[in-house]
């Protein structure tokens, strides 16, 4: 990727759904090839993405107007996070990061890391203090991203039928 690329972060729109679903399917296959259990049980599915977009949770990172990365950002609402085996850093408002998926066309270009910069800027612009995120214990790529971006391991949560490592980063 060159510096001439225009990168934008925006809410996903209904006309993005087909592209987002294709990216999700690529990510499901990538997780399977990596030997991960994550996303191998029919979740997320097309209805999940349609719901994200209709509720305003879905966001995309575009490169030269091509959807490159998808993420769902949800304010203060993840029931699984209320019972953590461990302890969150904060008890106030937060943004939950779910369903990060990078298009195969843009894989390996550092866009997931860049996505977290946009998420953090967006979260601060909403005067929300922290970002919470979970991932599968075997999602090495995401674990490395969270470490590199300064997220703190807080414990484990049970989500989508599995135990997930939970992280938080205090922004303000």
UniProtKB/TrEMBL annotation:
<feature type="domain" description="N-acetyltransferase">
    <location>
        <begin position="7"/>
        <end position="172"/>
    </location>
</feature>
<dbReference type="InterPro" id="IPR000182">
    <property type="entry name" value="GNAT_dom"/>
</dbReference>
<protein>
    <submittedName>
        <fullName>Acetyltransferase (GNAT) family protein</fullName>
    </submittedName>
</protein>
<keyword id="KW-0808">Transferase</keyword>
<dbReference type="GO" id="GO:0016747">
    <property type="term" value="F:acyltransferase activity, transferring groups other than amino-acyl groups"/>
</dbReference>
<dbReference type="InterPro" id="IPR016181">
    <property type="entry name" value="Acyl_CoA_acyltransferase"/>
</dbReference>
<dbReference type="Pfam" id="PF00583">
    <property type="entry name" value="Acetyltransf_1"/>
</dbReference>
